[in-house]
Fold Sugar fermentation stimulation protein homolog.
Amino acid sequence: MKFKSKLVPGKLIRRYKRFLTDVELEDGSTVIAHCTNSGSMKTCIEEGAPVYLTQHNDPKRKTQFTWEMIFINNHWIGINTSVPNILVYEAVRDQIIPQLNMYTNVKREVKFGDSRFDVFAENEAEKCFIEVKNVTLREGNKATFPDAVTTRGLKHLNTLIEVKKAGMRAVMFYVIQRQDIESFSPAKDIDPKYAEGLKEAINNGVEVIPYMANVTPEKIELLKEIPFYI
């Protein structure tokens, strides 16, 4: 995914009310940027760290900027939660993920039961529902999810089980938007119910695919699959 316009550099002043951030631009001015990430973001918040924003000209928007990434631990970390959905959709459509390179029709935002999944893919032989999650939390050398209790995430896992029981393929896809990690695991200490739900989903045939993303101010792309430990 390439950014359509050049990103705006700045430094993080603070994040507040979950969805708002104050950023100091290079000219010394301060702007308010929208933060799409509703989680705690506890390992990707560092006041004074370099950040990049996208700028919007829509007069209907409450904020002119969206916070895209932050530079911590010598790496850019993508914090925009809408990016992983685009990355996975494009990768499945372009058949560049080995486990998902067999589909001829790919759509976004398709409903099953009482859930709406991020990606739906199909060919003449099968149908596949894919739920995508953005991962930024780092614990030692591993990435973990979630960074806050997620009842919505647990609901998606339960619905993926129903997808599998209905005879279709069900995939839980985690996009880790940072490179200073070596593996992925559920955050059992933060949300034990989600961790148990993920284990139950796997036992019922739901597939788990964790991918590291390469985050730069020019583009964000899926880089490689990383080891997963339950």
